[in-house]
Specification:
65% of the residues lie in helices and 0% in strands. By secondary structure, it is mainly alpha-helical.
Length: 114
């Protein structure tokens, strides 16, 4: 007797609802990973966000800075808090870091002094 095997395509169950990241969030995460050492050094050495903005523009281009800063301080902070290895370094200096992000995101803001 021939052994007949019937292969049927059964759709797999959809993956449990996973949180998807927007393209902007993915881009920001990649950029954060690249410039986090510079950011931490700047914050820990009493640098300011304006200086980091200039560095990001010089190294990554104006369009990268514009996309990151357009997300705003709150979104950047949310993303950093989701990255536990980054947040563990930022949490002890959260107040100073908050001011730093204000400066970083306000680099071109005419209300900020240069």
């Amino acid at each position: 007797m021939p052994n007949a095997t019937i292969d049927t395509a059964v759709p797999s169950d959809p993956a449990p609802e996973m949180r998807t990241s927007s393209p902007e969030e993915l881009m920001l995460r990649g950029v954060l990973r690249q410039f986090m050492p510079m950011l931490l050094t700047a914050v820990n050495q009493s640098g300011d966000g304006y200086g980091l903005a200039k560095t990001v523009i010089a190294l990554f281009g104006r369009s990268t800075y514009d996309r990151v800063s357009a997300l705003g301080k709150d979104k950047i902070m949310q993303l950093i808090k989701r990255e536990s290895d980054l947040w563990i370094q930022i949490a002890p200096i959260e107040a100073r870091f908050s001011t730093f992000l204000d400066e970083f995101t306000g680099y071109d803001d005419p209300r900020q002094s240069a």
